[in-house]
Amino acid sequence: MAENILTFCTAEIPPELISQFIKHSQRTQESAKIWSVVRTPTSHPLGKRTRTTISPFRTGFLDASLSTLSEFVTSAPQTDGYHFSRNTFAVLDARSIEDGTVVLWSRLDSMPMEAVERGGWDEGKKTTEWKDYRVEFRKACWVVGVLQTTPGLFGEIVEKGQGTSVDGDGVLNVDTPMKECDLEEDDVSTDEESL
Known about the structure:
Largest sheet: 5 strands, mixed
Number of helices: 6
């Protein structure tokens, strides 16, 4: 994964929980350090990887809606050296504090079949849909990897229940290949230090 994933807090999330999310999400095979916590709408630079030692902050996205977050992700300027996905983002919300889950949002662009049959892709007829997946912290990085490479296919697999299920609490359960080691080593540098 070359792009980092913008991560928003729509509730006041303790820094320790954000650190736990970052560490636990890297327990799957082929996971990477991809999370970029956006503290406020004016945070800069966007896309910079967040370290596991985080200073307390007040979120600038308290109770932010999907439309607010998706507009931010798709229109915010990219910064040299810190590239972030415009198709996937993560949300730590009030429920994350209770059950250790994160909501992953994935953008799906599609075209009506009649437009495709008449000549292919037409930007004017494109439709955009954002799909959400609530997953456990430890599976988040793996799910993002799949969403980044095959978002439409992943959605179909989830809808058909092939190797996945959604529990009674709305959490997506998916088989993920886990690393043999328990956790990534702590990144003791602070989030404010440069890479």
